[in-house]
Amino acid sequence: MGEIWRGIKEAMNLIVHLDPYVMKITLFTLYVCAIATLVGMAAGIPLGCWLAHSRFPGRKLIIALVNTGMGLPPVVVGLFVYIFLRRQGPLGFLNWLYTPRAIILAEIILAMPLIAGIVLSAMQNTDPKLRLQSMSLGASRFRSTLTLLAENRVSVLTAVMAGFGAIVSEVGAAMMVGGNLLVRGQPYTRTLTTAIVLEVGKGESVLAIALGIILLSITLVLILAMTWLQQSEGRASPRARIWGKRLRVENE
């Protein structure tokens, strides 16, 4: 136990004094995950809304694929991205393998179905009469969808944070398509998770603990933020209560 506490103490010293290696890996990880999350949002939120409000042949199949994507093993995603990006693969001409772009692509594939699935569930559980009511008052389909997204903002934010949390903590895909490279002292494709694996393999437990503490802190902040959002706005918003009151009056 003494060795563990000594390692934690030395790790905290690295963090407090902003060790350049630790900070570079942390900032690179946040950069990659932020881009992947933003792209996942841009694709996942519209996809979730479209599936919730559209009816067409094959819709159930697409929903099943989205739900399957929510539980994709990261190492399998990394495998297929690797196959597509390797020199002999269909996208080999891009020369993205073992670059930050490859990591971002793999993490987008992981985050997008998760965001889309949560948004889809939230939109489906919203009273459909609210959307019909807004359209009857002159709102376009796009505007009415934005209104429902606003009413489900807690679920949307939860979806985004869940997507970010899923990719910031994954290691298999980032290791496979990124290669865990350090170029001229810069974490070219080295993230917090892959660096932890490397440092443990090298026997650098202090550095691994420091990186682990940072990763746990990021995860803790996400969990606290989601909990606060869910507890503070778990009930229907004032606008939703107004719509509900209008609908009850009209139905009477």
- Beginning-to-end CA distance, first to last residue: 69 Å
Shape: globular
Q: Major β-sheet, in short?
A: none
* Number of helical segments with 4 or more residues: 12
What is the arithmetic mean of pLDDT? Answer: 85
User: Structural class, from secondary structure content?
Assistant: mainly alpha
Helix content: over 70%
Q: What is the strand content?
A: under 5%
Radius of gyration in whole Å, from Cα? Answer: 22 Å
Number of domains: 1
What would you note in describing this structure?
α10 (192-202) runs antiparallel to α11. The model is unreliable at 247-252 (pLDDT under 50). This protein has a single domain (22-191, 219-251), classed as MetI-like (MetI-like fold, Orthogonal Bundle). It has 12 helices and no strands. With 252 residues, it is mainly α. Helix content is 77%, strand content 0%. The N and C termini lie far apart (69 Å). The longest helix has 34 residues, at 20-53.
What is the topology?
Blueprint: H1 2-16, H2 20-53, H3 59-69, H4 74-85, H5 100-124, H6 128-136, H7 141-151, H8 153-168, H9 172-178, H10 192-202, H11 205-232, H12 238-251
Summary?
The protein has helices at residues 2-16, 20-53, 59-69, 74-85, 100-124, 128-136, 141-151, 153-168, 172-178, 192-202, 205-232, 238-251. It has 252 residues and is mostly helical.
List keywords for this structure.
252 residues, MetI-like fold, globular, mainly alpha
